[in-house]
Design a protein that fits this description.
Elements lengths: L1 E5 L5 E4 L5 E3 L2 H10 L2 E4 H4 L34 E3 L9 E4 L1 E4 L2 E17 L8 E19 L2 E9 L5 E2 L2 E2 L6 E3 L3 E2 L2 E2 L2 H9 L4 E11 L1 E9 L4 E2 L1 H6 L6 E5 L16 H10 L2 E8 L24 E9 L1 E10 L1 E7 L8 E7 L3 E10 L5 E3 L7 E3 L2 E2 L6 E3 L3 E2 L2 E3 L6 E9 L107 E3 L4 E2 L5 E2 L4 E3 L9 H6 L19 H24 L1
Parallel strand pairs: 1-6, 8-16, 17-21, 23-32
Antiparallel strand pairs: 1-2, 3-5, 4-7, 8-9, 9-10, 11-15, 12-14, 13-16, 17-18, 17-19, 20-21, 22-25, 23-24, 25-26, 27-31, 28-30, 29-32, 33-36, 34-35
Length: 607
Amino acid sequence: MKILVKKSVPLLTYTGSANGAISNHTLLDIDNLTKKGYIFDESATLGENPHIALPDGTYNPRTQNFALTPNNVNVYNATNLAFDNDTNPNNQIYYVYFYQKATPVTRTITAQETINYIYGNGPHKGEVAANPVLKTLTFTNHGTSVNGISTWDENWSNDNGFEFSDVDSPTIIKYNPETKQVAKITLTNGDLTKAANQNQSLHYTFTVTYYTNENASLTFYDDTDNVSLSSFLTKNGQESILFDQYNKQDDNSTKTPIQFKDADEIVNFLTSKHYIFKTVIGQGSNGATKYNQVSYGNFNNDPDHDQAFVLHFVHETNSVSQAKSVNETINYIYGNGPKKGQEAAPTYKATQIKFTQNGIQDLVSGNTKWDAWTPANNQFKEVVSPKVDHYTADKLQIDAQTVTPESKDLSYIVYYSMIEEPDKPNIPDKPSTPEKPTQPVQPTQPTTPNEPKAPKKPIEPTTPNTPSIPQPSTPDTPSNPQPSQPDSNNVPQSQNKPKDNTKRAKTPISIPHSSSKPTPVSHQPVQRNIKNKTLHNNSTLTKITITTHPHFAKTLPTSHINSTPMALRSKHILPQTGEKENSLTILGLALATLAGILGLSIKKHKN
């Protein structure tokens, strides 16, 4: 059987028989390794947390250790180690953990940038054109050393950053740099580590060469306003000055024509803004007055004197004129009366007065220089207000009005007031002829009325020598009985029948109404004719003519008169003799009946 002890150093192997034991030399090995600079990690050896983090995929102290086994016999510091009797001869493997003591270490590296500036041609060719630029950055790297072996961190540090910033080439009069700017340089941890591992520093060197040049410029000028067009062009997004250069490394500048490539664009822009090209001025130009014929000549090979050219312009103008009209309007309005606010007479509109003026307009500025107005003034004639019957105007005329081109339209309102006239007597209206009364509508078949109350029996008058007019008693107020059926006997019963004191229900009388307009009531007396009518009991109802005041006149249908419980008798047959009563008796009864009818009519009217 074998017992294997792994210590991250040469493996220790113990060999013995099953169920046997052997001396444990682990403590001796731990002591020897400690003397060589290793540090024993007892915690990890016993299956607990290691002193330092172990890389993933290596060892796991939780399961790979030298702690007590399940049978509590083998541990790293035991005196003897026991062999088991498993069929697997190599399953007793134990782990002892050590770590090394590390020493902090540091290293640095320097990176340097150098930019040189020299003349490439001209009288100073090869000489220094400007002071060189020197930049230095120092970087630091940290690590640990164990037994002389250093392990370095991946990252470097520098308080000033990891880049050399952009460097603009300095301006040298009459010379142009071949490079206007040296771009920034960014250093990486890999660049620094590579240089440090090779024990080398980092150097970045640049040379900027300057060449003398021939310069030419072109500007634009406004001769009308006597000002430069620089501000106007800049405000409108155009270049205010153009340049051309000769910067080749030779002496052929005098053979090279001067050209301003953006000049055509600017001239076209100015033309669109109503500027007119006039001429070109400058050393070597041809002074042309048409732009398509302009020539600026060649470079003059004189680096100390630049060539300047100017294009001159004037403003485009246009002949203009303007007119103005002045109107006069007069409205005629009713100021009062039934037509107040309405037009009293047609509106007067005078013929327009027109003024004209000529001038010259500056199409660049928009300003116009005007001549005097023609004519200077004019006049509207006077206007007499028209006459309107029965009205008077508050203005008899509108006077003549003088106007100028600055005058506004004239507007007047003439108000007409009604002339008041004395009132004339009113002619009374002719009375209209009263309408003929319409035939009453035949009443509908009434319902059977309640039995009327029996009237009191009149006192039978005696036969005096001189008849007197009997005074009938005041009849009871009728209870509006309905007319009786034609075949029913509605004649009061015998005078001897006692009065029925039972209160009977009132039945409304159906009175037909005419659909036509009511007949005007005449102020003349009204006559009523009461004629004799034979009743069912052979008594006679006498209808007489009654003259009443119109205020008490009320038309009643015959049925209403017939239905009254008061049976009017004009004649009474004596039972003994069969002869008629004397004329005085008849007259008395007629007057009594008349008084009853008048009382009933007046009472109904009041109601």
